[in-house]
């Protein structure tokens, strides 16, 4: 248990009679359980709200995917999975419901609310120094987690919720997507263009366009006459085709999935027990009852239709679930429109008229009209809303496991709640091509890691709206570091593939993607170690540095063991202020794709960084391993390692690697290379402490000391 004492550091309180959400999987007998309502740190007021009184300097980290800062203070957030297409700061919920946060200040502890219903976190919004947590449903589990450090608190929480999903290693390659690759010809054209421009491409994502009228597990044979041929040809090029699957199943006689669903009773129902009708992309749909184990099994098996065609990964979407309208809602909106048609519509009636239509989507009334059959028990959807996306992805995961239990499939989802992190990764949904959304993405990353979501990333370039070449470049400079690196956009946006602008832009983005492949062994090593040890891949500075100034930093992150990143996210910027809590080694990827280094003093200063340059830092006494770049992850070789080291006296690094495709890593089948660089009587020495079963043949080390002196070591094994 990593030396942490769960039994001493975690207290579980049971409020009311909570249902099992699948979030916490650690044997609860190991956790101190209290039913007394006399809570540590918090009080419960007469309305059942949980209150905590913050001091002025307390910082609140966490809450996963949501708007605003790294420090969540000063806003009100709602955990209610929402199909929210516009991530502006006035919003309170996005697609995920991630009820874990850490208080850091006069007291240090974590809180997890284990509830499937809406939870409102008022973090100093109503009252500057007060956290008020309102659980709409008063049946929930409350976990208070203590520990010696922020890292320990998060680690303990992650031990409660179980090991995160492990993607295949190839999923760290570059992926190209677009809602709107509408035909096989267009899809092939993308592959051709990447090849022509010699840009690495690992995955081609297909959006709803490949389906026949947006029906899951079908193929539009007019647009994609030889879908199988496309998948095969892509495979020959080393590119995986990753199709989307949506939650709603089209209501259509003769469509086998619909018919089986009705016959098997696999759909959510209305109060009378008839399949609930709503609408999404295909028009009228039924919603599979993912909370029902029989329905989950049935839906999970359907993925075989596509894996039989050679598909090895999926993205699950619209699973909050997103509802466009219901018949009831639509009828009442039309009725009201008819009523006021002939009136002289004043301002209020005009707004009401508009709202009647605008509010059709994701209506609370509709959510309250849906029922799940949770293995015999009828449960209203509204009470368990946040479990829908989780259970869709669980269905997929288990379905894929039945197809091949030892294979790692790529899988990520839009909606999620804590627990889903064990079944898949997630992407941050429909961002806009706005500079602010590079910044927002950066701020969500550590918060998502805290809640167990490790395989994460955003739509590089922004999903909605038109991107610009500079925005796309800067966004790539952030995605370069996220485990999921995918360029995706909407059908109404201008093209944003790396080659969609001028030659200069193509070259810059190509350099970034090529550098990504050099970095993948490090990124994968850190991702896997963080999954195995319940650590954070992205951390706010405070998790590693205790100085006062680090607490203020909202736009720089620690990435794994060795790096600090400080992405550029302002239009027209030629650099930015960056704070170094200690001396660090600046690494600059220049316009030619070459890495340049410079030792920098601690403190805050302006760092120049032109559009064509990517900068990041190696921390003091840390080592960054790099390899020769390739066009595919499978071709990356660990025979020769290039180590960039910034060392005062001693630094060490352990590079993790495994086969990347099977689940043998779960049985501790992996390889480690451990290197130590130490200054002994004024000279640096390289020790290789571990390298069993590895391909390693050669190590090239470049070492910078604190004064910027450079030494190199070459070692053949
Ligand atoms: C949703 C998804 C987006 C996708 C679109 C069409 O908006 O978030 O990624 O492109 O649906 O399927």
From TrEMBL:
Residues 640-702 form the DUF5110 domain. Residues 165-525 form the Glycoside hydrolase family 31 TIM barrel domain. It holds the Pfam family Glyco_hydro_31_3rd. Residues 54-122 form the Glycoside hydrolase family 31 N-terminal domain. It comes from the Bacteria. InterPro entries: DUF5110 (IPR033403), Gal_mutarotase_sf_dom (IPR011013), GH (IPR017853), Glyco_hydro_31_AS (IPR030458), Glyco_hydro_31_C (IPR048395), Glyco_hydro_31_N_dom (IPR025887), Glyco_hydro_31_TIM (IPR000322). Signal peptide: none annotated. Residues 538-623 form the Glycosyl hydrolase family 31 C-terminal domain. Keywords: Glycosidase, Hydrolase. Belongs to the glycosyl hydrolase 31 family. This is DUF5110 domain-containing protein. It comes from Clostridium cibarium. The lineage of its organism: Bacteria, Bacillati, Bacillota, Clostridia, Eubacteriales.
